[in-house]
Every structure is written in C-alpha cells, then in structure tokens.
Amino acid sequence: MAMLRNGLIVLLLAAPVLAAPVLAQVPPAEIGQRNVPAPWWMQQPVIASTGMVRTELPANRATFSVRYKAIDKSAERALAAAGEKVRGIDAALRKIGADRLRLTTNFSTQPLYEQYRDKDGNLVDNERPDKVERYAATVTVAIEVRDLAVLEPAYNAVVASLPDALESVDFSLQPDNVTKTWLQTEAVKDAAKRARQAVEAAGGRLGPVKVIDPTGGVCNTEVLAGWPSYSGNSASPTDVNGMMARDSAAPAPAMEIMVAGARNAAVSPPVVSLQPPLRALNDSACVVYGLLP
User: Fold this and answer.
1) What domains sit in the chain, N to C, each tagged with a CATH number?
2) Which of 43, 102, 195, 276 pairs with 226 at a CA distance of 20 to 30 A?
3) What is the pLDDT of residues 189-210, one digit of tens each?
4) Crossing angle, helix 75-94 and helix 151-160, to 10 degrees?
5) Mean pLDDT of 247-275
6) How far apart are CA 235 and CA 202, in angstroms?
7) Cα separation, 42 vs 63, whole angstroms
C-alpha cells in the first residue's frame, strides 16, 4: 500500500493483504495492530479527498444586558422602585415582537447591613438579621436581538432610559439552512477539485465516486496505523463567496422606540452606531474516488 499525504489530498492504494469482503468488515481490536481489515472502498486503488471551505458572513444575532437598581428600607419597595425604572423600556421593547427581539428579565435583592469598624479600622458588615438597614433591588434585562435591523434603535432606546449598568453588545452568526446547504455543497465541490488536480498532476485518471462523507471522517482514516485512527487535518480551507447579502447586512430602517415615562428626559444620551461584524463559517466534506488504469 502507498499513501501520499500533502495536507490537502490523501492518496490510498489498497494492498491485497488488506482487502476483505464487504460483509466481513469489522473495526480492529486494537489501534496499530499489524493486519487490519480495509474498508470496502479500498479494495481497488482510490483517492480520498477532503474538501475544506471557508466564508465570511455578517453576524445576524446580538445580545446585551442592562441593569436597573433601587434602594429602599424594605425589599418590597426596593423591588417596586427598580421595576418602575424598567417598566417603560420593557414595554417599548416588547412591542417590537419576540420574533425580532427577545427579553429575559430577572429580579434580585440584597440586604445592606449596618457597618462597623474592627480593631484594625476596617469597615465590616454586621451581617445579622436585625442589623439590616436597607435593601438593594436589581432588575436585569437580557436582550437577544434576532433581527439586526432593530439593534441600533433598541440599544439607543435602552441608553436613553438611563440604566444603572449597560453591557457591551456581543455578536454571533447563526447560519440558516440555506447557508448550511450551500456551504456543504461548496465543500463537496472543493473535494472534487482537489482530487482532480492531484490525480492529473500524478498522471492518473479520476474514476467514479465511491463515498461521499459530509463529516469528513473517512478521509482522516489512518489505514497504515490501524483502522480507524483519526487525526486532525491542518490543511488550509478554500475561501468561497457568492452568497447574497443577508437581510442583517442591510442598514436598519428609520425607527423610533417610544419609551413611556423615561427618566431625566432633559438629558440627551449619545446615539450609538452598531455595525454587525463579519464572522467566519467553515465546513468540510470527504469524497472518495476510484482511480482508472
């Protein structure tokens, strides 16, 4: 058997000693033993080609969180005050629709104890139930933006509500089924191109397809080391383009989110511009071809 591995193409020629009937094929008992059954598709000379592709698409998801706090002598009044702070922005954002923007709201309270100084002068909380002076209530709103056309107006509306804390925006890419299918097709095309170029460069002729493995595992089989023994592929993927720009890449339409009862309306908060970054998307596929004499 001969094996040619250049990081892009794996050339496997089956020796007769490795050939085995299709029905008798079983994995070896131990990795690395001297004689193991060969896969059925290696009973004749083959080339196993891994197609690897990469593209960049605009992020289509964004998440951030915002917190509103209030302090009062009772936990109930503190929670009510914090809830009042978030009431206007919560109602305004929910009107956008759960299919475009989703909210998750959590409430928490924390007792604030009477404090004293120890013998070293350090300020210490007197954590006894009868020494609670006040309660701090926090309302945390986690915002998931599923339509980036509403990201900027939603974020600016949150800024205008003057929260006590506002987290930065995290972007991510959730490809749809159309994109996944397209990229998988490109990976198979790339495998075919790599196999054809390798065989022609070696002076051979490419035969029919024997196996198409979208997982890429077949092309990582180390037959000489004992089958199966999988290893990572360090080859560089092929950059592919051609996908039409997604709706998330389009500029957000003019939109204004009205917040009832906004605090300190006289204050003009800064308007934030948020542009979705590009995110890489990778895929691979293994295609095994026979070799013609």
Assistant:
1) 2-56+176-246+282-292 (no CATH), 61-172 (3.30.70.2970)
2) 195
3) 999 999 999 999 999 999 999 9
4) 150
5) 57
6) 20
7) 49
